[in-house]
């Protein structure tokens, strides 16, 4: 039996990747600690009624958003599960992946175009209310946007849970003559109940760390979350003490939620690929079929509405003029360049962590105990979920403001933050393929002494080519649509498309914002479609 080499370049690469993540996260914490130590009285003074009100609203909107997303998702998932041959079922599931690819600011504009004061449904709502429709800003807009994003995700996760029910149970239920109600209680509900805590926790975490949605749809101090308050404290009020307290509170809340998710075994990334639905042996009654069809149709209209509104309102803009603007061209090139670098860095760091974990696992298989380094390589990418992008940006903003011009380092910070934030998705895409390739080739590489770049280019590359491309495309789409880091570090000299879009919204140039949203949404959607296609090709 071959023994593992004493030194492995994969372990060294993993240590470098972990160090890079630690520097980014640790540097943000250092900035927060130094700022709080510089002005402890200011930090204590920040504990006031405003802080409590923001924290309470953050938890309240996340709780309501979770309830309004998860409860309907249970019913929609069951309806889709009960009708595996529903017309257009595959298309509906593919449509439900679009919100995962759509930048939050694009979806917010679509919701405003549909339900806003001048939206397509404004006249209908005004007639129903007997007066002028005030729009959807505030808590109602935040809830609608969160449900738009999380209802499809929760539906797919619940449908995945229902797909794990053995076909033997359905066959036995058919033989016993079960109808819909006992079948739900005895067969479907146990699977849904097992998935419910993890799905609800995941949605709650996504809502509690929502930044762009609340920034664009919050509508004032009464509808402000912790992340938006951090942004306002640094960019508008320039109150570092308050920003530190808000940031620490945000970290504490997200840490509690992520720990709870880990205890529940929740899927913190979500999976765009569903198992093939097992054959159903129970017949569906006419009344149940009608109700399920209505449920699916309502969910489809709710998800498709903002997308169609984004397209229609974007086409109404003067796209030719926008394409000719120097600011738009510069923002497009900046977005593409930063997203390209962020995706490349994200995939590189993810691959280094995956390879390091595999090498350390091989050593453990040969008799060594699991080391702290292996545990860090296994969970390092997921740890960044505890610290949202706006928190990382706030920490570094405070750390650098006394050292250099914070706006001059905007490209570096945007690339670094977006790369690390995309790592959990990249790891999920690349890791299965790397582990499978390692199982096939590990002994041969040890016997022939193939390692390092030679192994990667000659042995691993054929198996990793498509997963790496998938992770790269998805990471690039996430980076293109992100507003977290650039919201703090952006300026007139460094603007991305989301930053320019937000600026046009702030100056009430809604037509220009709609055109930019259409452009940004289409680019991100094409990237995610390419990632999905590459992933499916890799499985065939």
From TrEMBL:
SUPFAM superfamilies: MetI-like (SSF161098). The keyword Metal-binding does not apply. CDD domains: TM_PBP2. The chain crosses the membrane at residues 12-34, 59-80, 92-115, 135-153, 194-220, 240-261, 289-312, 332-355, 376-400, 406-427, 468-491, 511-534. It holds the Pfam family BPD_transp_1. Residues 55-257, 345-535 form the ABC transmembrane type-1 domain. Keywords: Cell inner membrane, Cell membrane, Membrane, Repeat, Transmembrane, Transmembrane helix, Transport. The keyword Glycosyltransferase does not apply. Its main location: membrane. It is a multi-pass membrane protein. It comes from the Bacteria. Coiled coil: none annotated. It is found in: Cell inner membrane; Cell membrane. The complex is composed of two ATP-binding proteins (ThiQ), two transmembrane proteins (ThiP) and a solute-binding protein (ThiB). Belongs to the binding-protein-dependent transport system permease family. This is Thiamine transport system permease protein ThiP. The gene is thiP.
